[in-house]
Model the fold of this input.
Amino acid sequence: MAFGLRWSGTRVFLATEIRVQLHEWLAIVMGTLTPGALLIFVAVLAPGLLPVTLIGALVYSMFLIGQRVLNEAAYIRIDHKLNELYHASPLSPEGYFVGIAGGMLIAYLPPSLLILAILEVLHPLSLLAIVTLAACLLAVWAVSSTIGYVVSTMFKDMKTIWPYSALLTNLLGVLPPVFYPFSKVPVEWRSLVLVLPTSAAAVLVNAAAGLEEVTAAQGGLAAVALAVEAAALFAFGIYWARRTARER
Amino acid sequence: MIVATDAELRSQPQRGRVLPAWAFIGWRWLWRSPAAAVVPLLQPFFFLYFLSRIITDPRLFPLQVAGAMLFSTQNIGSWCLADSAVFRIELRLQDIFVASPHDKLHYLFGVAFSNLIPALPAILLLGVILGMLTPVPLVGWLVLAACILMIWILYAAIGIAVSSRLRSQREIWPVGTLIFTLLGILSPLYYPISFLPPVWREFARILPATYAALLVQGALGFESASTENLGLDAGLLVLSTVIGLIVAWSLYRWRES
Done:
């Protein structure tokens, strides 16, 4: 009963968020621009790496959803002050968090499907690779949505949030081997990048798609790290949503 | 009794402390938000690292460092867009500036100047790295500085002009990304223009940053260019900057009504 009550309003809020986000078509299109720009750089400068970069673009697009959750949650709370209204309603805090994160995921899915279609043309994926891709993208979404939501609750104005948002996307999206192969990472840094959620996802999908070879130990480390981070962070996101539901 | 509207506007102080005040706004922003200082400093290096993973030719690195200086300057436009939109939409500060003796040109320049402050450490550090990587003649430094100045003024003006048309803070991110990511990728800042496919090359020639890149690459000796070609690039940079400024000025809305 208590568990049921905690999820009250989730479906309605999820539907609201999807609708709100689908009205922001420019933001959805622009979400593809940064990975698109990196894809173009690779297409021009190193066309042989294009399939790896397309998988990287899918992972990065999923990670960008966290940035959009950050902006949306902050916008609702700081600019519109709607947060108070939502939390005074029967909508549960965890329904609020999952609603924003899920709404973003669904609204921002079409550009990712387009990238997937291009990838299928350039490098058709096996069933195993498709399943790995779906699982890894969901894990990255869980991690990035939680980071985005938690960070959004820590600031009092929108302007302060942007540099942190840019820092996170660069640190976890551009720097590690998401858009370029794992083999280009110096050996001493490889263990570290395998535990980062974005590069772990990219490495696993590249390996499943036959684009790169990794050892069983490396694949295992990446898979365990990504699964633990996704589960632990998403659970923390729900805890944080309950804790920060009302401003003090 | 004298009311505020009776005061002769021109009798009020018109200039003197405006620029330092805007510089102080820029400095306070850095001081209050450490990430605001760190991100502009790191961003070009993140991208340079990414490029070094996909291009293995180390000879391109000095060219990419010079390109990163121009790219960092171009990014100021995006921050100006966000800043002036927040000032107007969230803080309602622009109304106060409109009512003050601060005219719209001063406001535009002030926002641009306050946003130059967070970018300066990155630009200076990249300059030091460039000097360590390759000998740069005095003329090269002067050309680089002039190009940075032009790109700063033009892209800041574009950012502020576009921001004056935004209605909600929700629009800042997509519109800023659309304009500055597109402008950033179309110009050959990080590689020679000869790397680009022919159609893209023609598109790139519409943008002022392309001429800034060609001028810097030629003046620093990264690409072979005759004096006539450099002169032509300089002329086209000035011309495209002037056209860009005229467009930005016509788009820029100072008062709400």
